[in-house]
Amino acid sequence: GESVGLHLPTLSVQEGDNSIINCAYSNSASDYFIWYKQESGKGPQFIIDIRSNMDKRQGQRVTVLLNKTVKHLSLQIAATQPGDSAVYFCAENKEDSSYKLIFGSGTRLLVRP
Amino acid sequence: DAGITQSPRHKVTETGTPVTLRCHQTENHRYMYWYRQDPGHGLRLIHYSYGVKDTDKGEVSDGYSVSRSKTEDFLLTLESATSSQTSVYFCAISFGTSGSLPTTNEQFFGPGTRLTVL
User: Fold this and answer.
1) pLDDT tens figures, B34-84
2) Does residue A6 have a pLDDT over 70?
3) Which residues in chain B touch residue A101, judged by CB atoms under 8 angstroms apart?
């Protein structure tokens, strides 16, 4: 079936290093992808999104890359900070008027001081 | 937080009892969603609403019902709670006022309700 998944369940990085969180998706018809950050005890928080007509999109310290050929999505965080420690989810848009999202299972990012 | 509140924030109940969770939004958004989140899983859609009295099922709708009698409130009911429904429940909205499609695909989430069914 159609699904969104992640390669690595836990990623540990040194403070100041760059982080890369990966996500695979299976629905080639999806045209919209979002990355969410979820801190402990809180709801998911929007980070950045990208549409399928783009390969790359940058935000503040974050970049999302989309490779439609291999159906792969990644989130890059520059100069990772302790406040970046959280679980990160990718989600894909299911193409219909309801804008339903399908979420991956999440990657935990741990930032070592 | 897009003006989203959820109540209660925590609840413990017994198997077989009915439970209703409330999601309230203050900004007249048309689309509202209920998700559950379990350890090792991402968020899974239970039900969603695209307007007053307009709802549809998500991927894990069995055992749940919803109602939306006014724009600002989306209620999730566990008709007879089971231990498998112990979870954290999140409500979300998509921006877009009543009568229009969402202005973006982004969904914004409430703070969640932790439900324990004993």
Assistant:
1) 999 987 678 999 999 988 999 999 989 999 999 999 999 999 999 999 999
2) no
3) 43, 45, 105, 107
Query: Where residue B23 sits, what CATH number does that domain have?
Result: 2.60.40.10
Apex CA B43: angle with CA A92 and CA B113, to 5°?
145
Question: Is A94 touching B (CB cutoff 8 A)?
Answer: no
Instruction: List the single residue in B with minimal CA-CA distance to A35.
Output: B106
Domain count, chain B: 1
> What phi and psi values does residue A45 have, to the nearest 5 degrees?
-120, 130
- In this structure, the number of other CB atoms found within 10 A of the CB of residue A61 comes to 15
Distance from CA of A99 to the nearest CA of B (A): 6
CB–CB of B106 and A34 under 8 A? yes
Which whole-number Å values give the CA distances from A20 to A12, A75, A107, B43, B113, in the listed order?
Answer: 10, 6, 11, 21, 30
> Does residue A3 or residue A21 have the better pLDDT?
A21
Domain of residue B69, residue span: 4-117
Of the two residues A97 and A85, the one the predictor is more confident about is: A85
Pairing of strands B10-13, B113-117: parallel
Cβ–Cβ below 8 Å for B45 and A101:
yes
| Token pair listed for B110 | 């409430």
Chain-wide mean pLDDT for chain A? Answer: 87
